[in-house]
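Here comes a specimen:
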Amino acid sequence: MFKKILCPVDFSQFTQEVINYALDLAKKYGAELHLMHVVPNMTYFTPYESFLTPENLVAIEKNIQDEVERDFAKLLKGNGVPTKTVIRTGVPFVEIIDYAKSESIDLIVMGTHGRSAIENILIGNVAEKVVRKSPCPVMTIRPKGKEFKMP
């Protein structure tokens, strides 16, 4: 049913939990797992352009990319699933959607942070935007301890 599964990760404390779901599905369906991390554009985080010279940006992005590759290697140790890792720079939900379209992804498995409605308004919610705009089904994984409970 699924040949390509995309699992965007943010390296939060729940990342391994989400990857475990994606790995289990990839094993069950014999699918290729695509792990993706989106690095936000650095110019959004600096109030002064003079701090981000082209040389500084290249060095910063290279350091981030090296660190992400090391983290991917730790997360994927001995999983036995064909895996492709992707690092992009930009707006996370846009990059996830663009990648899913360009790679003909069959399923996106991603975590939510279990934030409250007010936190979502203030911070935003990548998972919600991906669910709304995705070209394929999206499975969202809530972290343990953040499950919905009846009052």
